[in-house]
Design brief:
This is PepSY-associated TM region. With 203 residues, this protein is an alpha+beta fold. The protein contains six helices and six strands. It folds into two domains: 108 residues, no CATH class; 85 residues, no CATH class.
Length: 203
């Protein structure tokens, strides 16, 4: 084995196992949730609903008159702090929908739909969350639904790791393929199957 080939083999093996280690949990998650999404009817659970209610103190209720009566804007100031203390909900800088009668916030998270409404006239606060179960939570992570910016960047990083894993694997097949006659027929079959299915069986 010449020095150049040995160098590239070491580099490819190193990056192959590093990318495999980094992407292992993500690959397992996305493979498993691919199955649960494909067979959603087999993995349903009854939703559970929880509610919280509160009443704004008069001083805060009076401040509602200073807020817009239409459009959308993030909530800031004392109101989000009070909601956090009294209802254990973080609504700071969350986008609120304003109307003359109500302030409404959508607070959906992976696997759950939630909303909070504030009655501008009475000061009543009502929060409701409907959780669809652990499988729904994982499925929403697969789709990036309501998962936030950190998850968005994690998926990008995972995609890059998977690309490195795949390309270094292909390069290792190339270097070792001469001594294994079945390498390229099997690799070619793996490449052709989705193409043939898409061209011939999806209309």
């Amino acid at each position: 084995m010449n020095a150049t080939r040995a160098f590239w083999l070491r580099q490819l093996h190193t990056w192959h196992w590093i990318s495999a280690a980094l992407s292992l949990s993500g690959i397992l998650l996305f493979a498993a949730t691919g199955l649960t999404l494909q067979h959603a009817g087999l993995f349903t659970s009854p939703p559970t609903t929880s509610e919280r209610q509160g009443q704004l103190p008069p001083a805060l209720q009076a401040q509602l008159t200073d807020l817009p009566t239409d459009g959308e804007a993030p909530l800031t100031g004392e109101l989000p702090r009070w909601v956090r203390q009294q209802l254990a909900l973080d609504i700071a800088h969350r986008l609120a929908e304003f109307s003359p009668d109500e302030i409404y916030l959508r607070l959906a998270t992976p696997g759950a739909d939630a909303s909070l409404s504030i009655d501008r006239h009475s000061g009543d606060i009502h929060y409701q969350q409907t959780h669809r179960g652990a499988i729904a939570y994982l499925n929403d992570l697969h789709k990036g639904r309501n998962a936030g910016s950190v998850w968005f960047w994690f998926v990008d990083a995972l995609a890059i790791a998977c690309i490195v894993f795949s390309l270094t694997g292909l390069a290792l097949l190339w270097l070792h393929g001469k001594g294994r006659p079945s390498t390229w027929p099997i690799t070619g079959l793996g490449l052709l199957m989705p193409v043939l299915i898409a061209l011939l069986l999806i209309h």
